[in-house]
Amino acid sequence: MRKTTINLTKTRVNGEPYFCVTVPRPGKGRLRRFFKSRDEAKTFLDAKKIEKENHGTAAMALNESARSEYLECTEALKPYGATLRDAVGFYLPHLKARNRSCTAMALVDELLRVKTADGASERYLGDLRHRLRLFAQAFNGKPVAEITARELDEWLRALSRAGTGKLVAPTTRNNFRRVLRVAFNFARKQGYCASNPADSSAKAKEIERPVGILTPAETSRLLESCAPELVPFIAIGAFAGLRRAEIERLDWKEIDLASGLIQVTARKAKSARRRFVKVRENLASWLRPHAQQSGPVTPDNYRELLDTARAAARIHDWPQNALRHSFASYHLAQFKDAAALALELGHTNSNLVFQHYREVVKPKDAERFWGIKPLTADAIVAFA
Known about the structure:
The structure is a single chain. The chain has about 375 residues and is mainly α. The protein is about 50% helix and about 10% strand. The chain contains 18 helices and 6 strands. A 3-stranded antiparallel beta sheet has the order 1-2-3, with helices on one face. Strands 4-5-6 form a 3-stranded antiparallel beta sheet. The N and C termini lie far apart (about 115 Å).
């Protein structure tokens, strides 16, 4: 098959003489234009030859509307130093994502299934489930590819505590933003959106407040006032710094009083990494009377027992993570080793230690805290 070339021929249409200009189309085929005047045909022919020389065969197939659109777009992009190819490269992923996007509710369901299959802890899954369900309900039916950072900002800023109508605290809002970033990162990897709008959403300003801890006197009264079966739970929280959930999962076989170590297994640790926590002498003195070969350290009804103990110890305000924060604050003040404390807490570095626990308590109070031990028979008689 002969390749179509640009040429000018004389022909007849319905018996009338015309001049025909034939130009090739991109790929196969040809484009023909008819003119009554040879001069008009020659002018068109010369213009097409110049177009071919400057831009190739494809440019010759552009009609006036397409050429006008091209010029308009290139002019609009010129102030930004971008080309039409740049614009297409930027917009095309959005079109592809929109075509295979899913709703917010479908995204949350899929993410939870994947995280469950990947072995995420039930606590982490519960946090994702709670926060992302509220997000999915708010954006019900909307494709995730069409959700913008501005819409996320508006939703986050309007979040309120259930039943109160009061806006959530900055920390809570940032926790919602954190899980949104997880969800949209997953969506981007799955091809449901081209970018992560949560990354561009505003982070609420958190006013740093000192961590809440128990005084040495409150800690002592709590241990002396609680039921015997609750003593290990409180003592390990205060003098070993394990998280509440970690103590709930702890078994007596993981406490080695002879070597002075508590093993927090990877399966039971929040960080999913095994670590060992030192059993200091005052903690050992609280644990020895209750130690067993195996079995759960924490009683099933520990929440009720703790409420009763707090009331008996006259502790009306219970700070969040009171036992763990007390351990870290008094540990840093007494032993002055942030790196060792970070390892016992299960942190990857000492940044959080310095951020939250530095200069929270005085050295004299730290000495009193680490001197808290069970009252001996002689001490009880003397006290009486």
